[in-house]
Design goal:
Helices cover 15% and strands 48% of the residues. With 131 residues, it is mainly β.
Length: 131
Amino acid sequence: MKIILGLTLLSVISTGYCFQSHASAYIRGNPVRHFLQRWHPKGLQPHTDFTYDIKTDEGMIIELHCPYISLHMPCEEYYFKIIDGPHEETICGKTKKYKYLSKTNFISMRIITGPKLLKGGPKCSARPIKA
């Protein structure tokens, strides 16, 4: 019994390397502002995998606007990925005035962090516009 308990604890500890969280929003007329800061107001903790999904009505697309994105390096450990159907776009490092127009009415944004605290994550807003 002690061996099974020990193996179970070891598997939980070994899979607990990365904290995963997921949030979503459905937007219609009003934009969603600074949604990443609302979920992580003090920054993203080390080894975080955070996914945020945004969906809007059929016949609409999503305009994503990020005035400033500042991520640590290297790009393999810290990145911001936008998944829009089959299209993916990955951002790492520092970027100013980033704007993205989706190709579909549903996008996922994924932020991966490495061993350091990420105090100032991407400051982004999203709004629906007609396709």
